[in-house]
Automatic annotation (TrEMBL):
Signal peptide: 1-22
Alphabetized InterPro entries for the sequence: TPD1
Cytoplasm among keywords: no
Record Pfam families: TPD1_C
UniProt organism field: Pyrus ussuriensis x Pyrus communis
Keyword Signal listed: yes
Keywords associated with the record: Signal
Protein name: Beta-1,3-N-Acetylglucosaminyltransferase family protein
GO annotation, biological process: cell fate determination
Superkingdom of source: Eukaryota
Length: 124
């Protein structure tokens, strides 16, 4: 019983410390990128829908993804995905709110492995 209480206190302390270290807790890695085929064909290439979830309890702005080698036949909406060189800016640089996602579509022969590059984490 005492051990149980002790471990409860340890967990409580740990979560308090964690709370204070929100900035560290939310890394670029806290973006979850999922994609799937929509079933649509664009110029005979499959269309993919990409969903980027902000998986941390803070705002993340100026989110960029690695776009090195990314190709699409579908015209991109620059507000959702603005490409500059090997980087793609998501959501026009605006904040992604905690646990919400933004999505965009593209069409190519193969699925492109988007990876998060950077973001501005803002915790209040
Ligand atoms: C994005 O970056 C620009 C330029 O560095 C900055 O002015 C802007 O406040 C940033 N926006 C967000 C949402 O972090
Ligand atoms: C995208 O961001 C730029 C610069 O921050 C701003 O001038 C423009 O109005 C934004 N576009 C939209 C559609 O929000």
């Amino acid at each position: 019983m005492a051990a149980l209480v002790k471990s409860f206190i340890v967990i409580l302390l740990f979560s308090l410390i964690n709370e204070g270290m929100c900035q560290e807790k939310c890394a670029t890695i806290d973006l979850q990128i999922r994609q799937e085929k929509t079933g649509k064909l664009v110029q005979a290439k499959p269309e993919f829908q990409v969903r980027v979830l902000n998986a941390c309890p803070c705002l993340q702005g100026n989110v960029t993804l690695d776009c090195n080698g990314f190709q699409t036949v579908e015209v991109e909406n620059p507000v959702t995905l603005l490409r500059s060189g090997n980087e793609c800016l998501l959501n026009n640089g605006s904040f992604l709110t905690p646990f919400n996602e933004v999505d965009f579509v593209y069409a190519w022969d193969t699925e492109f492995p988007f990876k998060p590059l950077s973001s501005n984490v803002k915790c209040d």
